[in-house]
Amino acid sequence: MNEKHGDTLRAIFENPVRANIAWRDVEAMLKAAGADISEGRGSRVRVVLRGVRAVFHRPHPRKEISPAAVRSLRRFMTEAGVTP
Questions:
Q1: Which of 5, 9, 18, 78 is packed most tightly, with the most Cβ within 10 A?
Q2: What range defines the domain where residue 13 resides?
Q3: Global pTM?
């Protein structure tokens, strides 16, 4: 992962939970970490990282993910063994 991906990963694990993390940055960071990403129905995005599976919803109409999604992403990344 490059510096930008590292910044995104650190932002996901910051407290208090941030509400200004762009989905495109999250998706780029996941790909750099080696995740397989596939499209689901509607705004669903399936992610598999190190054998751990999750489904996230691409935010719309906003570009940023919600604090609840950040917490879910944090839990997913921890289970996959990817932390800052």
A1: 9
A2: 3-79
A3: 0.91
